[in-house]
Amino acid sequence: MKQETACVHGPWRFEEKTGALSVPVFQSASFRHPALGESTGYDYSRVVNPTRSVLEETVALLEGGKFGLAFASGMGAVSALAKLFPPGSRIVVSEDLYGGTYRLFHEYYENYGLSFSWVDTSDFSKVEEALADRDKPVTALFIETPSNPMMKVTDIAGCAGLVHRRGGVLVVDNTFLTPWFQNPLGQGADFVIHSGTKYLSGHNDTLSGFIIHSREEDAAALREIQKSEGACLAPFDAWLTLRGIKTLALRMEKHQKNGRAAAEWLRKHPKVEKVFYTGFADHPQAALSAAQSRGHNGMVSFYVKSRTEAEQVLKRVKLILFAESLGGVESLITYPLVQTHGAIPEAMRLSAGVNDRLLRLSTGIENPDDIIADLAEALS
Ligand SMILES: Cc1ncc(COP(=O)(O)O)c(C=O)c1O
């Protein structure tokens, strides 16, 4: 199956008894046992739910993995994966990444014996240095590529080679490009993470999160973690995400077009100092991006000249909504300094480029002329 077909059908054709095309929402916490010691395969929805299972198989299919696990949010997925690493593990992480992931690792998992080093993973020599570092072998390298919000690109295959040579695993947060544009497992990654809340579900109407992998040796442990901590995805949210994935290919192509149109327009605007967009021919990692991805998303970050101007844009946008998310059909604008990256210490935030002049735009699927007209008005 090609990706578009897999998005529409996944592992599902129709429901045997009624012929229903849409996956039924099995809104049941519990399932009757046929007899003592017997099971239909479904006993309790925290463990397995039929609607969630179809979604888990769908995302695994799209990412080219053997196993998919669905969680109540992207953070639920990151948290479950972190539990796979025993106390004492050393984890190297992209310094420019979603602030919530930073908060979870720094404020919580550090208290449970994991240690984290933060590096600019788009600079390969810095990754080499961080992995080679010290007496303690690295357990995992966790990267976000393209990164949020600076759109830096990290070499997936290169990082996989480096971390594998040291006995560790590579985790890639693929939220920004989705399997439509990038498949990290095929490039050597061991685990893929998604905030399904973003492009996968695509309609700003549900939270979801995923871990996808092919590691037989970790499959049982991850299921056990999902079952034990209970942050599993609810049946209706699983259905909403399945419904969103059906149009993933169409939406991503449109997001890409709108992202490019907005990025090119912003770049020419006198009040905009710099634009960060992975699709520019002069993006610092354009060649790497072309080698490891099949396209670009609708994400564009940009610097205006002052904090006052940034605040004015947020106040003046009308069509574009000032809201904290990305990847949905509606265009959204965010102020990373106080929102998505508010949890990151100032020095680290500033060294990554997240200052008070940075705005992050997630272009939706509206007509690009309307998005640009709104930006023009807001910047005027
Ligand atoms: C790249 C990335 N990963 C993970 C997350 C966390 O996902 P969720 O909000 O679904 O918990 C986000 C949220 O913005 C994100 O942007």
Protein architecture, described:
The chain has 380 residues and is α/β, with parallel strands linked by helices. It folds into two domains: 3-245, Aspartate Aminotransferase, domain 2; 249-379, Aspartate Aminotransferase, domain 1 (Alpha-Beta Complex). Helices cover 38% and strands 15% of the residues. The chain contains 14 helices and twelve strands. It has helices at 3-9, 50-63, 74-82, 99-108, 124-132, 156-165, 178-181, 216-229, 235-245, 248-268, 286-292, 307-316, 346-352, 368-379, and strands at residues 67-71, 90-94, 115-119, 140-144, 169-173, 191-195, 209-213, 272-276, 299-304, 321-322, 332-334, 358-362. The protein has a seven-stranded mixed β-sheet, with helices on both faces. β5, α7 and β6 (191-195) form a beta-alpha-beta unit. The longest helix is centred in the last third of the chain and has 21 residues, at 248-268. It is globular, with a radius of gyration of 21 Å. The model has no long low-confidence stretch (mean pLDDT 96). It binds pyridoxal-5'-phosphate. The site of pyridoxal-5'-phosphate (PLP) has 16 residues, from α3 and α4. Residues 73-75, 98, 100-101, 144, 148, 173, 175-176, 195, 197, 207, 209, 340 line the site of pyridoxal-5'-phosphate.
Draw up the topology in text.
Blueprint: H1 3-9, H2 50-63, E1 67-71, H3 74-82, E2 90-94, H4 99-108, E3 115-119, H5 124-132, E4 140-144, H6 156-165, E5 169-173, H7 178-181, E6 191-195, E7 209-213, H8 216-229, H9 235-245, H10 248-268, E8 272-276, H11 286-292, E9 299-304, H12 307-316, E10 321-322, E11 332-334, H13 346-352, E12 358-362, H14 368-379
Parallel strand pairs: 2-3, 2-4, 4-5, 5-6, 10-11
Antiparallel strand pairs: 1-7, 6-7, 8-9, 9-12, 11-12
Helix pairs in contact: 2-9, 3-4, 5-6, 10-14, 12-14
The structure holds pyridoxal-5'-phosphate.
